[in-house]
Amino acid sequence: MSNDTAGAQLLLEPATDEPTSVYLYYDVVGLLLYVGITSRRTGRQAEHNADKTWWPYVVRQEIEHYGTRSEALSRESSLIAERRPPFNTQHNPNWRYSRTAYEAMRPRLLRDPLDLAQELDWAVPLSIRAVPGSGDTGALTVEDTYSYRRVFLRTTLGDSPVGSRLAMNAKRRVPVRGRGGKVIGEVVKIYSQGALAVMKLHMDPQVTFTSASALVDPKKGSGGGISFHPWMVRCHHDQIGRAHV
Question: How far out from the chain centre does Cα 203 lie?
Fold first, then answer.
């Protein structure tokens, strides 16, 4: 192979050690729509994606820079596997289901948060958080200790206009109440997972339940935005016995 031919080949093949960026596109409620990589200027990928059907849904972008292409590829695949953005097909086995569900749900995602919260009677449904890697089957995530059971609950995607605005910095722990209003645990942490809110509960190890909801109060922040402050988690169909797994 001549030097000229070798040089041309090097120009055609992307270098694995060149700096590469990972870009993340989010929708109006903070749901991750798409993840991609580029070794060109970050403005070029916007031009490349402008003809995509999901491009009008994008309201926010994040960019992460990496020293090599292999690092960026690894980050891209891990983000897609963990977050399952509906418009990525690689590394996303259930992309058809995710995309169809998102398209069907999008009108609800655009609802006014206060109107939706009022429609829910100020009780935001909570689903049992799926075990990572389980295919989102709804399996119960439970960790037992000697004194309590640690359970994770999350808001649902369809309620994201409210769930994404749950107050994360509650100054006091929120009680968890079961049948007859009995306190059976407490919320010890609330954190964001994209457009969802996740609640970490410490529960009475003898009590299990099949569903729950967070009772919230709307409050206007200093910037005029609305947030929803949970003051109680109400468990439904709770009973003494083994956990529903």
Answer: 23
C-alpha dihedral, 224 to 226 to 230 to 231, nearest 10° = 50
Integer-rounded Cα Rg, in Å, for the chain is 22
Task: State pLDDT tens for residues 185-227.
Answer: 999 989 888 788 889 888 888 887 778 999 999 998 777 788 9
Which of 146, 143, 164, 140 has the alpha carbon at shortest distance from 235? 140
pLDDT band at 168 (very low <50, low <70, confident <90, very high): confident
Reading phi first (left if > 0) and then psi (alpha if -120 to 50, else beta), residue 189 is in: beta
CATH architecture of 3-108: 3-Layer(aba) Sandwich (3.40)
- For 58, 85, 132, 156, 174, the CA distances from 226, given in Å and listed in that order, are 22, 26, 31, 19, 20
User: Which neighbouring-strand residues pair with 239?
Assistant: 208
Q: Are 141 and 131 in contact (CB under 8 A)?
A: yes
* Whole-number pLDDT of residue 238: 61
Domain ranges of the chain: 3-108, 111-240
Confidence of residue 76 (pLDDT cuts 50, 70, 90): very high
| Structure tokens that stand for 235 in this block | 């468990």
Distance CA 241, CA 205 (A): 9
Full-model pTM: 0.70
Per-residue pLDDT averaged across 101-119, rounded? Answer: 92
